[in-house]
């Protein structure tokens, strides 16, 4: 049996990145623990000071297939290129015609740019096509 994984992002604003990545991946924010109607209610009940409420956030795949993604606040800013990045398959599967995949990727790049991402460059060479982008905190990812 395979071991499950959680992907973790170090960041400055966990709620902002959770919101962005939930939109980018079709995920949703994780539910609060059972017995609490909101994360705020849980945090209050556990005596967490309000200034610490945005110290972490998480998103989950509503279909239960993809990994949970966790965002944790850290004091230091991002300073170098990621050694790991996400490839977001926005263009459709291999059976999707190339021109349709390209159209879908450009449309998704535009949508995510409207949500705070930045387009870095387009790679279109010998049948390989993707757009390199950064999320609102500068973490690189590819739309393909």
Description of the structure:
- This protein is an alpha/beta fold.
- The chain has 2 domains: 6-73, Signal recognition particle alu RNA binding heterodimer, srp9/1 (2-Layer Sandwich), CATH 3.30.720; 86-143, Signal recognition particle alu RNA binding heterodimer, srp9/1 (2-Layer Sandwich).
- The protein contains 3 helices and 8 strands, in the order E-H-E-H-E-E-E-H-E-E-E.
- The strands form 2 sheets. Strands 1-4-3-2 form a 4-stranded mixed sheet, with helices on one face. A 4-stranded mixed sheet has the order 5-8-7-6, with helices on one face.
- The two termini are 30 Å apart.
Q: What's the topology here?
A:
Blueprint: E1 6-11, H1 14-25, E2 28-29, H2 39-45, E3 56-60, E4 68-73, E5 86-88, H3 98-114, E6 118-125, E7 128-134, E8 140-143
Parallel strand pairs: 1-4, 5-8
Antiparallel strand pairs: 2-3, 3-4, 6-7, 7-8
Order of helices and strands: EHEHEEEHEEE
Q: Helical proportion?
A: 25-40%
The average pLDDT is: 94
Radius of gyration: 17 Å
Which CATH class of the largest domain applies here? Alpha Beta
How would a textbook summarize the main sheet?
4 strands, mixed
Shape annotation: globular
Give the count of structural domains.
2
Instruction: Note the total helix count.
Output: 3
Strand order of the largest sheet: 1-4-3-2
The total of beta strands comes to 8
């Amino acid at each position: 049996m395979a071991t499950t994984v959680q992907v973790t992002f170090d960041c400055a604003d966990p709620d902002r990145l959770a919101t962005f990545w939930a939109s980018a991946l079709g995920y949703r924010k994780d539910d609060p623990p059972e017995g609490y109607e909101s994360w705020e209610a849980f945090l209050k009940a556990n005596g967490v000071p309000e200034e610490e409420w945005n110290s972490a956030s998480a998103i989950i795949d509503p279909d239960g297939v993809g990994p949970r993604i966790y965002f944790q606040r850290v004091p230091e800013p991002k300073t170098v290129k990621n050694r790991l990045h996400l490839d977001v398959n926005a263009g459709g599967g291999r059976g999707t015609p190339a021109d349709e995949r390209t159209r879908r990727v450009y449309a998704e790049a535009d949508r995510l740019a409207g949500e705070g991402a930045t387009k870095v460059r387009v790679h279109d060479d010998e049948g390989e096509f993707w757009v390199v982008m950064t999320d609102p905190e500068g973490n690189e990812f590819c739309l393909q």
